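Lecture notes, part 5. Sequence design as translation. It can be helpful to think of inverse folding as translation between two languages: the language of shapes and the language of residues. The source text, in structure tokens, appears below.
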């Protein structure tokens, strides 16, 4: 549980943050002044000895918690044997591919390992273009697929593009279902999924007639944890199949138990052709992958898709250990169970706090949208930051605001969180919310 022993930030943290301002660029997210020293499970200890409960998982990475002893042991053992062997075969890489394929839906029967989520989305889009006669890719407003140039071009938000243009050509963008702020001014279910119907119109006006794929996140994380309404994904897949396109599903942040299922796609009756995996796959050591149908991946000629660090023995051993922990400790089931608790508590808070405009999420990932009042829905960025700062002062680590309007609080604790830790963290958040709103 949290333990604050200094003013925040403490003296060591202040000194290090001053060095950071001198020697590092200011391009990173504007986080609270928490300087991590070490962490275990769901508890972060800063350089001054202050302890915080973690609602970040290091941005949805540490699914098995921080420094799980079995995970650490596996990494240490592999570190004494072999770090890297390029794309020569290694036992850890091959065993990891076998293990992940065994967890995936049966039609996804091959795995190409890379290093980061951006690597995975870039690779998936390159694969679709390589094995198709077309090259255009349909993506969505608000999407985040990474910060490399191709991934940023597929992204549908200004944040990763501003000042970096021109982007890679060949991407079309259409609205994603943001039901709290529908771009068509409609309400679900009376809207009859107008955002799906609009795709035909947009393609008819923007496409060069050379489409090859559609890429979408399972839920839009950076845009504010936006989750599509029932039937939307099934309808999108029907449209994709009617057009003869590849379906790329970006599960970099949602896979490996985060949403209460091993893979988020299991919440819907869909069958993507290529699935991007990352973050929780390695649960600390960087590891990512593209899973796909063998009919697609077997078309890639030797040497056409490789990676210096992808699938290296260290990251592969770490990922195997992480998956073993998830299965042995039933972390997917724990995420689903605690998700019900988080939902109930957030809905209860929403009833009493006018500025908590929308609550959305599943498992152990939530987005809380802050507004000036529920009628106008005007975004309140200052209040969002104030709530996060109040949490920090009380010993709860929350990531910087997200959302297309910068007014969403992201909740994403490690999947090893206990019910006691969940309740304590929710109590802290509720107190912080009331303090920031003057209640």
């Amino acid at each position: 549980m949290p333990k604050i022993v200094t003013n925040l930030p403490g003296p060591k943290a202040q000194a290090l943050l001053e060095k950071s301002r001198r020697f590092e660029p200011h391009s990173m997210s504007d986080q609270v002044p928490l300087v991590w020293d070490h962490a275990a499970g769901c508890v972060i200890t800063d350089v001054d000895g202050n302890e915080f409960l973690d609602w970040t998982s290091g941005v949805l990475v540490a699914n098995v918690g921080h420094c799980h002893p079995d995970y650490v042991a596996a990494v240490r053992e592999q570190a004494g044997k072999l770090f890297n062997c390029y794309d020569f075969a290694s036992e850890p890489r091959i065993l990891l591919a076998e293990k992940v394929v065994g967890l995936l839906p049966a039609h996804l029967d091959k795995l190409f390992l890379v290093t980061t989520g951006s690597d995975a989305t870039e690779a998936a889009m390159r694969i679709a273009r390589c094995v198709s006669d077309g090259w255009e890719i349909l993506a969505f407003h608000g999407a985040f697929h990474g910060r490399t140039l191709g991934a940023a071009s597929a992204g549908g938000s200004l944040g990763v593009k501003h000042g970096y243009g021109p982007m890679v050509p060949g991407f079309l963008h259409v609205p994603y279902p943001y039901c709290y702020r529908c771009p068509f001014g409609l309400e679900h279910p009376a809207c009859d999924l107008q955002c799906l119907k609009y795709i035909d119109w947009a393609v008819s006006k923007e496409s060069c007639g050379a489409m090859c794929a559609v890429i979408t996140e399972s839920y839009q994380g950076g845009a504010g944890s936006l989750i599509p309404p029932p039937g939307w994904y099934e309808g999108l897949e029907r449209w994709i199949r009617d057009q003869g396109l590849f379906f790329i599903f970006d599960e970099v942040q949602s896979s490996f138990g985060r949403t209460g299922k091993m893979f988020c796609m299991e919440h819907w009756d869909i069958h993507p052709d290529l699935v991007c995996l990352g973050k929780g796959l390695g649960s600390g050591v960087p590891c990512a992958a593209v899973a796909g149908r063998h009919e697609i991946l077997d078309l890639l000629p030797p040497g056409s898709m490789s990676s210096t660090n992808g699938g290296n023995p260290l990251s592969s051993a770490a990922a195997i250990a992480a998956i073993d922990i998830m299965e042995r400790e039933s972390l997917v089931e724990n995420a689903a169970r605690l998700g019900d608790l988080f939902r109930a508590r957030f809905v209860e808070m929403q009833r009493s706090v006018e500025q908590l405009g929308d609550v959305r999420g599943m498992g152990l990932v939530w987005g809380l949208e802050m507004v000036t009042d529920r009628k106008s829905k005007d975004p309140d960025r200052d209040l969002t930051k104030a709530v996060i700062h109040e949490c920090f002062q009380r010993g709860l680590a929350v990531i910087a605001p997200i959302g297309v309007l910068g007014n969403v609080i992201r909740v994403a604790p490690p999947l090893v969180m206990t019910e006691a830790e969940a309740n304590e963290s929710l109590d802290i958040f509720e107190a912080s919310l009331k303090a920031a709103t003057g209640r």
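The translated text above is only one of many valid answers, since several sequences can fold into similar shapes. The chain has a mean pLDDT of 97.
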